[in-house]
User: Fold this.
Amino acid sequence: MIKLYDYVLSVNCYKQRLMMSILDVEYETVPVDFFPGWEHKGEEFRKINPLGHIPVIDDDGYILWDAHAILVYLAAKYDPSGRWYPTGDPGLLGETASWMLFAEGTTNTASAARLCVNLGYDFDLEACQAGAHRLFRVLDEHLWFREREGREWVCSGAHPTIADIALFPDVVLSEEGGISRLDYPALRRWTDRVKRIPGFEGMPGIFPASRGVEV
Amino acid sequence: MTADPFTMWHPVASEHDVPYRHVHHGQLLGRELAVWRADDDFVNVWENRCLHRGLRLSIGSNDGTELRCQYHGWRYANRSAGCTYIPAHPADAPARTICNRTFPSVERYGLIWSGESPVGEPPTVDVLEAGTPFGLRNLPVHASAELAVRHLQAHRFLPSGRLGAESAAMSVEWADEYAVALTATTDTDDGSASTAVFFVQPVDSGRSVIRAVLAETPAASEQMAVLRHHATELNGLVARIEAEAALLPAPEPMVPVLQQVPLHLAEVPEAPSGRQAALRVQVRRKWETAAGVAAFELAPIEGVLPTFQPGAHIDVHLPNGLVRQYSITNGPGETSYYRLGVKLEPDSTGGSVCLHETVREGDVLAISEPRNNFPLRRDSMRTILLAGGIGITPLLAMAQSLDRMSLAFELHCFAQSAEHTAFSDVLDGLGESVVRHLGLPPDETVAEIRRLVATPDEFTHVYVCGPGPMLEAARREAAEAGWPDDHVHFEYFKNTTEIDDSSTFEVALARSALTVTVPSGSTILEVLRESGVPLPSSCEQGACGTCVATVLEGEPDHQDVYLNDSDHEAGDRIMTCVSRALSDRLVLDL
Amino acid sequence: MAGANGECQNGAVLDQWHPLGAIDEAEPNVVHVTRLLGESISFAVTPEGRSAVWRTRGDLAAGMPVDPESVAGTLPSRCEFLYVWTSLGDPPERSFDIPEFFEPDRRNFNACTIGLRTSAPRAVENFLDMGHFPFVHDGLLGSEPRTEVVDYNVHVDGDTNEVWATECQFWQPAASATATEGQMVDYVYRIMQPYSILLYKSCPAAPERMDLIGLFVQATSEEHCRGHMFLSLIDDESSIGHIRRFVQTIFAQDVPIIENQNPKRLPLDPQAETPIRSDRASILYRRWLSDLGVTYAVIPAA
Assistant:
């Protein structure tokens, strides 16, 4: 069974839990005392990941770190439909990769701001917040146009991809880092849609969406 | 002269912002708004603040009929914003007047219009009235509305259909404090032109949203290109506006005044007084819902109807002078009318005959505000609803609420036949939770009730409404099966007890320091009213529970059917419309 | 009430003891910088657990080595109940007592310190509230439809002037880190000072004793604070990591709620919000803050 080295309040660990919950993959967590214990910076943990960060997965001896890399691996291996990581469609795959890189930006701004405010990390909070707003403006416009095209997800296909999973936690918890989503109504609607994906699971701080309209 | 922005209509959202089951987070003139569309397409514009603890309602959930606050699960009704349920006190009906602050809402040109206290109607724009309006992407701007409007007058775009043109001649059709209308014309021979109206929503002193509408909808094949063209041009404009705004001193944010809640809500709630008919409604629809049962939809003449909860009833003041009580059968969110079911009782004193024969569609009736003496707990693991005949009415409202909340329930309908089952269409919509028991003779009805209540359960509540003999049977069978009194709830149509009003006794009012004598032939309620102590009342025959008073001293002579046996034994409450005293004197907490 | 630079001018608050951080988590003999009541405050602890606290100054920057006992011009300070405490006014000799803390079989530790974008009293009032359990802590501290808050008692203790809410009960599906099935749980709440609250909760491991969970709030400004979550438990089975995860999960569920209250400062005007019977404790808390003369991080009644 997959082992996930996990911290319950980490958005990057949550991305893996969410993906595995949606793909209905069985896994167990190995809790890491991230805060206030800083266990991931300790010598023991560095034997698993010399970079000293989480999440890390251990899939029957195959070890992989970096949140977005793990998403690629999980979707490629455990989604038989091939839709979450669409290797069969080069155009869509390129888009997915592009938005995964964009998600590195939201993680390094929006989610970094949350670490500053909640856990007292010594980052430049104002720079993180301003950076997140710049990215959210782009993403809001992008998602507004997707809606006009009759699409619901970040990439242009009819089905969500790992890019939605990579972006969602950074966006939905942004207000904890002092980044309001008042100016981003399309972004807010998209978070409702992600919450309605079958198999969706939240993390502390994320509330479920109301039932959608039955089709 | 500058118009007062607080008395003007402003766009607060576009129709794209309010899909079903979503709550849009908006802001106007510094005040945050929660904007949500109910399943009946009414768009609610509310202050973004639950009255209880100030929580933003925009993080709550829209279930299509009600908005639920995320903090304590308080539910607020579509349209009226009245509170319909407080989960921390599931046995109590919420005070009717707990109501969130609402603002007017009108959909026009694909935008939702509202305002702090807007006068008249939202603006009418000739070019949009005459055209086929097409909404563009809205853009937030970190600048005042004034600055945005100034820059918009120099805004440039290309006419739809001529997006390949090098440039277009721009003309300002008109402009005011919060809107600019521009026409772009290409100087080619065909003279293609497009007009767009740019409304500017003043979000706060230093923030706005540009909401643009094209006068004519482009051909379907061109729409995406037109939208992208305008988005590109507007993004450029916004960058220029924000560059200028960044050089100006940041204005002080606007501080909206939060209204105080009424004093009576800040303190212990007081009972409403009098048997009043404050509301005027119109019979919007009248139809036969079952053999001998007329259904009525009562719509407000103006404004919105007060909030009701499942189990609530209203007094209907009839044209013949009688006052009768009827349960509201509506499900949650059906807030634009009250739906009643009235069974024809030819032998009665004339209430149902009047409604069946005299009252027509279009008639105006006086009704009381809803009152709930039969509240539904929604903290049970299971709820059993037993309806006899027309007793379906309050239970129908309950069943729809439970269904909406996905709580387990069974609704047992006892009726003479399928033709005698009222509101079958609504029952059909409740699926397998509804069990029909048709044409059972009285002894089999009792046997069925015995079976249904055979196993008392701490986490189950039973609600019964129907004719007297059925209620008596249910009361007896539940008691014999060992149900605690407070798990079985009854609503009587009427009190068939023969009232003995021969006694004479004294009533002292502890809080008013007043003592009166109640002579034989008069009721406590009547004597108190004559003495200037108004008590609320409704049925005035000991069935509905409205005129209850707390007994501090003395022994009541209970003659009502509202209180249960344990309540009667406890002797600490009395129905002042029928009950009297066994002791010489009663002291009431009034 | 705050001055031009946001510094607190409210005597009733200045004279209180305020927490700055967990002793265990502060590297000894090093300058730590934090904020309190709108001012930058520095502190350091000795390896033996003694402390020095001072208004931040240029020659002692964050991270510099320092001998705490050599710092001049310090503020009152004490190391007590796991934390370094200080006061910017004239504090009482003792803050409050927690006799249970000294029982030998208890495990006392800081579960977490979390920064919040709201006022300290909003955080305290949320901690005092049971009605939100099924909606905010679904599946852990409450679960629909078991939503009823049964009536409980409240009083202000005449000797200590502390607010108590007693005989509180709530149905919980997983009341603690060790619980496996639902139960009615007994609670007692105790507010010792304007921004500090303790919860006594029936203890699964020892039915006749209570676990203690404290929320000691450091008001960094009127609308920002840091919550220090204090635990004193009778539980020799669970690992500290396991308990921390449970408590941090609960705390993180509360964060988006209390950060979305408007206004952020706690309004003391009874007509500002709509209390119901289950809010008796918070009604008394608000009135008690008014009576103490607290004007900082609240909106005083007119």
User: Anything to note?
Assistant: The longest strand of chain C covers residues 183-193. The mean pLDDT of chain C is 93. The radius of gyration of chain C is 19 Å.
